[in-house]
Amino acid sequence: MKQLKTIKLMKINHIYQGNCIEILNKSIKKNSIDLIYADPPYNLSGKKLNLEGNLTGGAFFKMNEDWDTFDYDSYLKFSEEWISESYKVLKDNGSIYISCAYHNIGEVIFLAKKFNFKLKNIITWYKTNSMPNITKRTYTHATEYVCWFVKGSKWKFNYEEVKKFNPNKTKNGEDKQMRDFLDFLESPILQGKERIKDNKNKRAAHPTQKPEKLLELIIRASSNKNDLILDPFFGTGTTGYVANKLKRKWIGIETNSKYIKISKKRMLNGKK
């Protein structure tokens, strides 16, 4: 997709509503973003799971969201387009972190490399309270991944700050290098106060809300104060919320009005 030559003044600390591919192309300047964090659809919704002896009267669904439902060819096309547009808006020394699972990590890496992103790490996020294995036909899935790609050869990595952030210390109590295996997140599958609830049914407002500590690590590692961070799948606003706390600027893109409403409230009053 060719980027339009005339772009209106880019809005900072703002949530754009709409298709991220179009907004990246029409509203975000080329080479303007220091860091992108993306938690895109994994294309897991709508997968029926019929279990023997099921007494609920229907099929189980791991997830069942319209925004996460594609046929495979459409999913590849969508992924290719948003990754391509992300490359255009990222600065030459910028980084992009993409959350994924075993279902789509192959596609993410292939497409990012197609557009000349360089893979630096695959961060493995170990979920100490992962969902149980109800099929009993596979190993229990207890990990997700965050692929860290860079655009050029002069990427930012705040090594000393990341060491300080690492809760694991040496035997002498000194700061320790951060490994790419994260086993220290207190609530890998968000529960308790940090989990944003729907006011009507008191259930989770968003099915894939990420922990603040995960975003804090990413933002501390690959950006500096006053840098501009973009999240093309803003959801309930964790990226912007953490960016504010760390004195970074941010831009969010989101299609869902409900999530935008939650995010705006979260930004205004700091409540989760």
Would you give an account of this structure?
The chain is α/β, with parallel strands linked by helices and 272 residues long. It has one domain: Rossmann fold (3-Layer(aba) Sandwich). Helices cover 27% and strands 20% of the residues. The chain has helices spanning 20-26, 72-89, 105-114, 159-165, 212-222, 238-245, 257-269, and strands spanning 14-17, 33-38, 48-49, 60-61, 90-100, 118-126, 143-150, 181-182, 228-231, 249-254. The strands form two sheets. Strands 1-10-9-2-5-7-6-8 form an eight-stranded mixed sheet, with helices on both faces. A two-stranded antiparallel ribbon has the order 3-4. Helix 1 (20-26) packs parallel to helix 2 and helix 5 (212-222) packs across helix 6.
Task: Summarize this structure as a short list of keywords or feature phrases.
272 residues; single chain; 8-stranded mixed β-sheet; alpha/beta; 27% helix; Rossmann fold
Summed up:
The chain is an alpha/beta fold.
What is the average per-residue confidence, as pLDDT, rounded to a whole number? 84
Low-confidence stretches: 54-61
Architecture (CATH level 2) name: 3-Layer(aba) Sandwich
The fourth-level CATH homologous superfamily is: Vaccinia Virus protein VP39
Strand order of the largest sheet: 1-10-9-2-5-7-6-8
